[in-house]
Amino acid sequence: MTESDLRRMIWEALNTLHIRERVIRMSLEQSEDKTELLEQAEQYVKGQLQYDSSGHDWWHIYRVRKMAVALAKQEGANVTICELAALLHDVADAKLNPSKEEGLNKVQDWLQGRDLEKQDLEKQDLAHVMDIIANMSYSGGHSVPLQTLEGKIVQDADRLDAIGAIGIGRAFAYGGSRGRLMHKPGTVAQEFATEEEYRSHQGTTIQHFDEKLLKLRNLMSTEAARRAADRRHAYMEGFLKQFEREWEAEDLFDGE
Prior knowledge:
11 helices
């Protein structure tokens, strides 16, 4: 090997290292930008929802975000899209705004105020987030099925937080915030022909279990969410049986 060949090999090796360093640095910068966007979203959502007492507060968002990120990593989905949609989804909720359209406009206006180029996001990424938020609600069983993996993941995470021990607590929090009765013996679950009918219904909180919560287990899209839903569903069934026994004082002498 000549000295010229050796110099060329050293130069090529150094050049390769330089390129790798640039790629790593750019990747880290993009990651920091995305982290900045998510931090901005977190602060925005806290400002919007931190005082909510209907079960749609910041801590609901916190839990949905954690589950969405975990599911996204397991399923190989776009974690940033899932996390951003999970963070923002209830800012647009029709229950918390004068209308669904006003809620969606609020989120879209906030997103459009971000520097997309700096965040390494495309317009279609924001459109994807908006599509998830616009269509993930249960809506009395009349929602449009989500088509993307990211949408299904965020919807699964949100539905998981509506069932189990947390779901029970949220159901009574929401009912109380709307002045609904906890239970009225003799009332039966309703079926709703339209989303509007579902939204205007003023049933009891216990009715809500049959009208929505006990249906969610069979609506999960990802395998991990289905397994978690099975466990949470079983917990709700146990709660409802005990609730009925206590309502009628049938447990009065249990254990004696």
